[in-house]
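We both want to read discrete structure tokens more fluently, so let's practise on a single case. Once you have written the record down, we can walk along the chain together.
***
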Amino acid sequence: MKCKACSDEYPKPDMVDGTAYFVCMNCGDLQEVANYHARTQDQIIEMVKDAFCGVELGNGIGLLQAQAIDNREPDEVQTKWRKKDEKFHWESISHELLEGCHSSLSFFDAEGMKFHLPAFIVASITGEVGDPLFHLTFDLGRHFHSKFATLSEGQKRAVSEYLTWCLTRDEYSYDYGAIQKALELHWKRPS
């Protein structure tokens, strides 16, 4: 992770009560990451896959259906696209389809979000798809909570680990404040 002040690489952090303190040896800048675990990309991916293993779409809004909603298509067109949606194996949704339907994240209900979120997270970790950070960090009040209402504690923990991992990535430095706030307010790790 690079220092925001001088762009030098931070050395390994000092850990105090689960909080990592990254201190730049060049300029002394401090970056604090609460609930930090030094997990690799592969470990985060495995955690997400384990937490969301067996999740099916059920009656939730599907990826293509959400695109039809975004395009303000009539109900019969939405139903047509719904029939083409993957409903059983989120892992089988192609990265190309996820990237092409990224705006679907705004139109999922709780079941649709639970089914598609792990696919977006895994694909963003591997750099295949744009990240879902806005949808995980933007405070939408009741709307935010309703989208994630059906997540289990293990699934919330996996999202929390993903967000914590994002705090160690330079490409997300612009989002650090929003990520930290979301972790504190919405994605608290159970004790």
